[in-house]
Amino acid sequence: MLAAALLVLGIALGALITMATYATELRRIARFLQAREPRSNARATTAVGVPGIRDLADAVNTELDRSSRERVDAQRHQDEFQRDLSALSHDIRTPLTGAKGYLQLAYDETDASTRQLHLAAATSRIDSTTALLDELFAYTKSTDPDLTLNMQPVALRPLIERVLVGHYPEFEKRGWEPELCMPDEAPGRDLVVLADPDALARILENLVTNAVRHGSGAPRVLVQLTSRGEASVTVENPVASTASIDTARLFDRFYQADSARHAAGSGLGLAVSANLAHAMGMELTAHLSDAAPRSLSITLTCPR
Q1: Measured by CB atoms within 10 angstroms of the end CB, which terminus of the chain is less buried, N or C?
Q2: What are the tens digits of pLDDT across the range 65-87?
Q3: Where in the cell is it found (predicted)?
Q4: Do residue 31 and residue 96 come from a single domain?
């Protein structure tokens, strides 16, 4: 009987010690979490290898690591946003300052023909600002999670032809002859994709505009059928150099290659295209070729 009593007492004492150890470790972890600074890299530790407590400490540290990564990413995005905002403010302010200067010159000018030249220059700069604001509005709209899309069958050939014809004056000025290649499997106007007509038109317009602004030769639009039965539209244009183009950032907001810093545009067009493509379940990718002639290809893959 005495042995049994001692056994029970030993078990009870062991249980009490274990419970006390658990309570002590839990309180220590709780105090650690309460005292830990949000930006601290401190990690939870345990003084004993009690089953469950070490697992808890590991789980706490995993969550702290995840929170730290999210904080770093949020700060990086905030820094990028501030830089983008500063760049946007500069892009808006510069043409407006120029317009104001030309308006002042026109106000002071007595010669009618010279006054008209100053007014035309002021109008051109105001138009540049308007175009930038339009692109900013389009970008904001494309990021709206509640964006309404009217998905329907859309014929590719007439849409692409309409976009190319809209740039005819620019092609003619440069002496370029754009090329449109359609697949043999879909002659004429039969090849259709499932898309919102306005959104798809905006994407193609932005791709061709990018080719006109930053290409060194006439663009080539190649339409193909993929092995999965999807349609891909590739806008390919020669470029003077591929060194300054980062395809990993090409669809980022406000991204412009170094060689395009002084060209027209805000760096929003391709970001808008990527957002609209994602909203329609499409994929937009970019590829650089260093083989002569050097070229940039942007491909839109569309469901049918």
Answers
A1: N
A2: 888 888 888 787 777 777 777 77
A3: Cell membrane
A4: no
Q: Which two tokens stand for residue 140?
A: 């904001």
Percentage above 90 pLDDT, the chain: 30
Can you give the residue range of the structural domain that contains 199?
Answer: 152-302
Q: Do 23 and 52 belong to one domain?
A: yes
Is the pLDDT reported for residue 259 higher than 50?
no
If pLDDT is split at 50, 70 and 90, which confidence band does 16 have? low
Q: Tell me the pTM.
A: 0.68
Task: Note the pLDDT tens digit of each residue in 156-178.
Answer: 999 999 999 999 999 999 999 99
